[in-house]
Amino acid sequence: MAFTTGGLLLRETGLVLARFQQLGDWDGVRAQVLRDNLLQARKASTGKRLAGEVICRLQHLTSEEIAFFDSAGDQDQAMLVWVAICRRFSFIADFMADVVRERYLALRNDLSRTDFDAFLDFKQAQHPELVGITSSTCAKLRQVLFKMLREARLLSKDNVILAPTLSCELATLLLTHQAAAARFFPIAEQDLRGLAA
Q1: d(CA 99, CA 51)
Q2: Could you say which DSSP state residue 128 is in?
Q3: How far, in Å, CA of 116 to CA of 154, rounded?
Q4: Do the beta carbons of residue 17 and residue 72 sit within 8 Å?
Q5: Digit-coded pLDDT (tens) for 142-192
Q6: What phi-psi label fits residue 159: left (phi over 0), alpha (psi between -120 and 50 degrees) or beta?
Q7: Which of 16, 125, 149, 178 has its CA 20 to 30 A from that of 57?
Q8: What backbone phi and psi angles, to 5 degrees, belong to 161?
Q9: Pair 166, 76: CB distance under 8 Å
């Protein structure tokens, strides 16, 4: 549930990955990013939090996915960051699979605050440790998640669910690593496989 740091952080991801390509070591990358204030944070604590989040996300990508990021277009890069977020946060992955994807496949393309709130209520029933979440924390989680979805172009500004735009190369790469990759997107399994063909 600790996904309130930033949004998609696509620009920051590119900067951190460029350092990783040079150093090949996440600890060295973290030290350089913080020392050089590469992410241009106003406070050292903000820079540390952003760097930590971006690095944690990137560590959920395979070496092939990281290598592909460099040559990928903007939309494929955004989709890779989205995949990393889903792999890092099971709450987001489950929300995508159980709410966003299911609504899209059922031709109910709108996504509302109440969809998120109902999903959080469901998760709280399964995980008692989530029961103590305040209404302000719930609102912040919803706000950040919807922002990420918009930045990944999976949700319009009017909260309409959008099908992902994936290149053939990225679809193939994702399916090679994870057979159930479609659960991270509003797309049918066969449609994702069709993109990879």
Answers
A1: 30
A2: G
A3: 15
A4: no
A5: 999 999 999 999 999 999 999 999 999 999 999 988 878 899 999 999 999
A6: left
A7: 125
A8: -70, 130
A9: yes
From its phi and psi, is residue 41 left (phi > 0), alpha (psi between -120 and 50) or beta?
A: beta
DSSP-derived secondary structure letter, 7: S
154-177 b/e with 16+ CB inside 10 Å = b?
Answer: bbeeeeebbebebbeebbbbbbee
**Amino acid 128: pLDDT:** 79
C-alpha 185/C-alpha 100 separation (Å) is: 8
Classified as helix, coil or strand, 127 is coil
Q: For residues 23 and 168, give the distance between their C-alpha atoms in angstroms, rounded to a whole number.
A: 29
Q: How far lies 38's CA from each of 46, 50, 53, 59, in Å?
A: 12, 10, 14, 19
**In the chain, what percentage of residues exceed pLDDT 90?**
79
Rounded to whole angstroms, the Cα distance separating 146 from 160 reads: 11
**pTM of the model as a whole:** 0.93
Query: Which residues contact residue 184 at a Cβ distance below 8 angstroms, ignoring those fewer than 6 apart?
Result: 82, 83, 86, 93, 96, 97
**Are 160 and 110 in contact, with CB atoms under 8 Å apart?**
yes
How high is the pLDDT of residue 46?
87
**155: which strand partners?**
161
Query: What's the rounded Cα separation, in Å, for the pair 196 and 188?
Result: 13
Instruction: Give the rounded distance of the alpha carbon of 161 from its chain centre.
Output: 15
